[in-house]
Amino acid sequence: MKRVFGVKKEKVPPPTVEEAAERINKRGDSVDEKIRKLDAELVKYREQIKKTRPGPAQEAIKSRAMRILKQKKMYEGQRDQLYNQTFNLDQVAFATEGIRDAQQTMAAMKAANKDLKGTLKTLKIDDVEKMQDEMMDLMDISNEIQESLGRSYNVPDDIDEDELLGELDALEADMGLETGPSEVPSYLQPDKESDLDTELPPVPAGHTKVPQPQAEPADDFGLPPVPRASMRS
């Protein structure tokens, strides 16, 4: 049967964008290598043309250099075509990756949307408001408990405003008597008798007292008198 009808050929899957781009890049590298070799030959021919006198020999070298230059131009055209194909493949690959990213983003958003809907089904706004009201009531009860526990014992509650003002006036009078007109407390004011009449310690035995210089009498203006010798001169 196989000889009559033959064998069905399997379809070869088309190459991917990455495979096609890799193949074209290899071809481009090969063309670039050929162009570098031709450039090296052109440099040699250029040196020979400089060293050769004008004539048949120089014309032959120029002819060979012209042929190499034409080959280089052809390879450069092929390289440009390969570059354009690689650029187009890169654009296709970029667009493909963008579509894949968009698909993944949509899948993630759908999953998040489903989870959010499921969560919102278990959470109702009425339950939240009810919980907030209960929390407010509990806070009020807590404040009342704190105020009750902070209440002082044996504190008279029958103090009126007149008694308060009288107490304040008495405190102000006591503070005025204690500080005095200089506004300095009595315990900070210096003791005049003890500070001014402080006696010096006695002179040890065997030591004579150093005579203290006597103050000269002053004139009517409080100035020391002028020596007589200076007045005579």
TrEMBL record:
Pfam families: Snf7 (PF03357). InterPro entries: Snf7_fam (IPR005024). GO terms for biological process: late endosome to vacuole transport via multivesicular body sorting pathway; vesicle budding from membrane. Residues 171-233 are annotated as: Disordered. Keywords: Coiled coil. The keyword Coiled coil applies. GO terms for cellular component: multivesicular body. PANTHER family: CHARGED MULTIVESICULAR BODY PROTEIN, CHARGED MULTIVESICULAR BODY PROTEIN 5. Belongs to the SNF7 family. This is Charged multivesicular body protein 5.
